[in-house]
Amino acid sequence: MPLLTLTDVTVSIHGTPILKNLNTSLEAGQVMGVIGESGSGKSMTALAIMGLLPTGSTLTGRIQFDNLTLNELDEAARCTVCGDDIGMVFQEPMTALNPVHTIGQQVIECIRLHQSVSAKEAKAMAMDTLTRCGLPPDQFPLSRYPHELSGGQRQRVVIAMAVALKPKLLIADEPTTALDVTTQAEILDLLRSLQQENHMALMLISHDLAVVAGMADHVVIMKDGEIVEQGPIVPVFKELKHPYTQSLFKASDHVPEQLSVSERASARDRSVTDDASALLEVTNLVCEYPIARRGWFGKAGKFRAVDDVSFTVRAGESVGLVGESGCGKSTLTRAILGLMSAASGRIEVNGQNINEGISVLRHVQVVFQDPYGSFNPRHKVSRLVAEPLNVLDTQPTREQRHQQVTQMLESVGLHASDADKYIHEFSGGQRQRIAIARALIIRPALIVLDEAVSALDVSVRATVLDLLASLAASHGLAYLFISHDLSVVRNVTDRVLVMRAGKIVEQGNTLDVFNNPSHEYTQKLVASVPRLPDYTHASVNSF
Amino acid sequence: MASTTRKRFRNLVPGAFLVVLFFGAAIVSFFYTPFDVETLNIKQRMLTPNAVNWLGTDHFGRDILSMLMVGARTSLAVAFIAVGIGLLFGVPLGLMAASYRGGWIDEFIMRGNDLVFAFPALVIAIMITAVFGPGAVNAIIAIGIFNIPVFARLTRGASLSLWNREFIMAARVAGKNSARISIEHILPNITNLLIVQGTIQFSLGILAEAGLSYVGLGAQPPTPSWGRMLADSQTLTTIAPHLALFPGMVIVLTVLGLNLLGDGLRDWLDPRLRRER
Fold this sequence. Notes:
The structure holds 2 protein chains of 2 kinds.
Chain A: E1 4-13, E2 16-26, E3 31-35, H1 42-50, E4 57-65, E5 68-69, H2 75-81, E6 86-89, H3 103-114, H4 119-132, H5 151-163, E7 169-173, H6 181-198, E8 201-206, H7 209-215, E9 218-223, E10 226-232, H8 233-239, H9 243-252, H10 261-271, E11 278-291, E12 301-314, E13 318-322, H11 329-336, E14 344-349, E15 352-353, E16 364-367, H12 381-386, H13 398-411, H14 428-440, E17 446-450, H15 458-475, E18 478-483, H16 486-492, E19 495-500, E20 503-509, H17 510-515, H18 520-528
Parallel strand pairs in A: 3-8, 3-9, 6-7, 7-8, 13-18, 13-19, 16-17, 17-18
Antiparallel strand pairs in A: 1-2, 1-4, 4-5, 9-10, 11-12, 11-14, 14-15, 19-20
Helix pairs in contact in A: 3-4, 3-5, 4-5, 5-6, 6-18, 9-15, 13-14, 14-15
Chain B: H1 2-31, H2 64-99, H3 104-118, H4 121-132, H5 136-163, H6 166-173, H7 178-214, H8 226-233, H9 242-269
């Protein structure tokens, strides 16, 4: 008998259907990968199993766990199952821990809620669990607070809380999405080893096909609250029967057509020769942040976020900047945009210093990561898109403005009538298109893409990358593509810079850097990227 | 979307009704009151509500309904202008402090705020009264000064978090200076907070005016105000409770109406909550 069985599970919230007739099952000790884009209902499925559905939702069908029907248990009975036999790991390690309790208290609380053990025994169990999760007490005493740990270490604590009681089922909802790629690899290793050690069933929810491919025995592909395809991973990923699975596969390793590597190489040979003028020239740039003074008369310290960085971007070139969180990428972006002043060094755009006034901003514009935060929610699209026109010497007339906005919206694949809408009426992908329209309206030579596609679903990401590629071709744009996502950078850039702890540790032709990384950090980064195995030659009968 | 529309006006309509009612009464009192409020009629004193004097009469035989109508002028004007003073000075100060965040201008404005905060409105009022003499105008100034740091703080706090948002950075990349960003981007995004705080300060203003009148620092007799009426009725509550009941009720209802109106306006002005076209 399977450990977990979902039979005709349907959930609606205030009458809106969220999950439709889910039927699936998970055997003990198996790993099930649940894949879907945002809004597909994958997290809602996890919440339904845990009984954590938001108020106002109704559930029909059966959720069978062991020999219990979870959705028919009362609150108290359910609480004894959840946390004891079912553990859960959430996406955001920053918010999943209580900041005012030590990590030891939080793990111990978990244990004592479900098992009547003495404080001493619970402490021993907590220490044991944290050690198994890679946080040995000699380096990470139980008295540490969450803020004293890094994101990856916090996620280890969250996992420790979930596995402390050796549950039969662990549900991990995007456990590595908020983490850096090298940390992601470590956490996935940890999950895998815990799962095998304890013969625990794992339900791994992710939007990332490669992550699931590396872990799961069985996959469930969800779209709009329905399971579109499920089965053992090899046949599903090899045969790609369902068109949605196919499109997910295509999109997740998408190479924009106009920018396929060979074409780019030849195009660059034609248009950008080595002596082409440097569009952006960063020379020995140093950026520092003050660290809070200790006491009234203490000396203010400085944190060097960008340390002696030099590079150039030539006209029409697409340059990637990769690095993990905290490496100084964002500070560098801000300095290039003139949003913060450098401690020393120079940034020149077309030979003009970035701090020389607003006219230099005619050549550089930016697209930010967050499609929700980068627009003033109180302005209409027409006003948002026209904003950069402010840097021009002669302000366009009303009609010219309107005309340009229309033209830009159409060039990014939106409609002229969208100019009269507010930003909340658009989806994430559409908003990123509007951000691109805003950056393009003054026809800059360089657009800084600060994690511009990181927040988008794979299929939307693919269309935005296509758009960027075609705009680069038609407008002769150069891109500075800042990202932590190495696979995207690999597919769209000509050259790449690898940044770590404020310094550029390696730079060169994208393919050279990715295929033959010379610096040890780059090697580690490249090795950590989860890859989709090549299923075309895999044998269906191997499982 | 009928149900959501009804939900959206759930606060706005009753709030607006109460506010219009009391403002209307104040305006009507300029042209018409059932009785003259400055004529004393000792024979008719302390009547309970009846067909002639709808809300009864006070200890001088003045009609309470008429006094409440005339008193609304003082109470509402004091609160309204005091909130105006707070917004007029506090919001620009807060915006300025936020745009120079961390600099000496920010420090100067915020420490100045602390200084004003350190004196309760009543102390400021006594100070002003000591210099200029008691009266409604001085009450307005005292309450108004007290409002400035409230709005400055709120504006600065709300603006600070906005300054780190990406749309502000996009505006900076579009070459806009701090003052322009403050007005174009920051201010519209904090209006909802200002409206809510404004209505709270408005109600506090009415209560503060009542308090100042109560200790004799507000409107001077014979000008009626809601606070004075409450103060005067204090010694008579056991004999004629309606003397305290009606002014108390209008104060409560006005404050309630303003709070409802504030919440309603906040929802109504937010394009995210506005109905999709």
